[in-house]
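Exercise 3.2. Students should predict the tertiary structure of the chain below and write it as structure tokens, then compare their answer with the key that follows.

Predict this chain's 3D structure.
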Amino acid sequence: MQLHKRRIHIYRRPHQCPYCGMLIKSNVYLKRHVRIHTGAKPYSCRHCSYRFSRPDQLKTHLLKSHNEGTWLKCHICQKKFSHSGYLKTHLRRHKGVKPYVCSDCPKRLCTAAERMHHQPVHLDYKESCCGKCGKDFKRKQTVKSHFKMCTDKLGFFNF
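Answer key:
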């Protein structure tokens, strides 16, 4: 349990990405993160030419493309998962368990990623802007999808 607390719940982030400066909690996660910048894909499929940056991506590929390995099934709805963590999160949804609470409102969420996605609604400022029309957005993902629509609507070269 102590090992789990140190690895998962530690707030110290002593490792810094040399490419973007992002602070990361462990050397293992730093190595994985750096692959985003370098494009390194050290995990290769033994059946085809596909390569992956993370072992979990390779495992999912082997299951889906080559039927190698074992799927984990939800006992409630029979949905299949390649990793136990994904199944565990899925089961939370069936049970209605939402352990992640927003620090600014009483909203409860199933995953830390959902909480991180929710947090910007409380910002007083908008951190992202469409390069086409200048409209401001609170979330980077929202501006990305808007930009695609805006580009189609206004035309690629229309400023």
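Discussion points: Residues 43 and 52 are 5 Å apart (CA to CA). DSSP finds six helices and ten strands in the chain.
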